Amino acid sequence: MSSLRRRAISLACLAAALVIWLGCLRLFYRPSDASVRPAQGLSPRAVALLTRQLALWAPTPTGAHERDRMRGSNPEWDFMGRTYLMLALANIALREPARAEVALATIDRVIADTLRAEREHGVYWFLMPYARAKPWVYADGQSVFVDGEIAMMLAARRLLRERDDYRDPLRARARRVAEQMRAGPLLSAESYPDECWTFCNTLALAALRAHDALDGTDHRPLVAAWIATARAHLTDRNSGLLVSSYTLDGHVKDGPEGSSIFMVAHDLALLDPAYAREQYGLARRHLFREVLGFGYAREWPGGLGTHDDIDSGPTVPFVEANAGASGMALLGAGAFDDNDALASLVASLELAAFPVEDATGLRYAASNAVGDAVLLYALVEGPLWQRVRGRLPP
């Protein structure tokens, strides 16, 4: 047998062994669909993540140190980590009423700290430095990113249990958001000066609908008009996906992105379920991939790739697996009960994100506190949106 032939056979055997080995990996890392997010209660993974998140907000220096570390990279992460934790805790309290008191106490602690930080440092405390690069178009420092997420925090708390001193702050935030959105040419508000993010505007609209459920207001006309405008002016022609960012007058800055669209579809599920499922289906088709039972998401649809940024995180070459997009894909899968995708994404986390479990709970070494909060929310979401829908007038 020639040397060349022996090498070819050896390489073929090595490739076959590699495929078999990779195929067996899923047996060790991929959880069953039912164990990822059980119909009732919390999975062991969710409990461990919750334990860690609660420890970060206990009255000890650990949590403040973690938030300061994230702020050093991106102050948005500190802020968004609070929002996702609030949403997770609200859903946990509804899933397991025995945990409601602990959830409410932590929610109140986070809200108080968030409002204090904004009062003492201003809106820029939660924004990246380029927010100061040019003036705001609508109103100085009125960011729908900050107003919308704080409104959602307040609404989630009140949906669990009414708190009278949160009523006026929620109404004020909702009024600011609605006024700014109605004033925009495309019914969108600024996240940064002359920079609108679909992520922020859809979450703000979801907060307005939660406000409707609580206080009897009606933002359905604004929601319907925004969706009609988005279909006409904020949709990528090639993929059908909503773009990520644009100027007030509609000039697209960033096209569809995995680190945005899965959360957008999750928001839309409260606003227009059919449109939400359409966007999630398109995102799954264009961005989600699964290899040998391990799932991941790309940041951009085919042919639209640009460059990684601090939001998207790194992209693995060739397969185009992106950290930020894969994290947000967890939210999309959870929102639409796509348990197969959810299980495959969790399998990838277990394989490649280096889970660390100790007395403080579960964290992922390749992630950070906001990433862990996103995962926790993905594993428990559902009941809060159901409560909002149940309180909305027909």
How is this structure best summarized?
The protein is mainly α. Helix content is 62%, strand content 7%. β6 and β7 form a beta hairpin.
Description:
This protein is mostly helical. The protein has helices at residues 3-29, 33-36, 44-56, 61-73, 75-95, 100-121, 144-160, 167-183, 198-215, 220-233, 258-271, 273-287, 323-335, 339-352, 369-380, 383-391; strands at residues 196-197, 245-246, 252-254, 288-291, 294-297, 315-316, 321-322, 355-358, 361-364. The strands form 4 sheets. Strands 1-2-3 form a 3-stranded antiparallel sheet. The chain has a two-stranded antiparallel sheet with strand order 4-5. It has a two-stranded antiparallel ribbon with strand order 6-7. Helix 7 (144-160) runs parallel beside helix 9 (198-215). It is globular, with a radius of gyration of 22 Å. The mean pLDDT is 90.
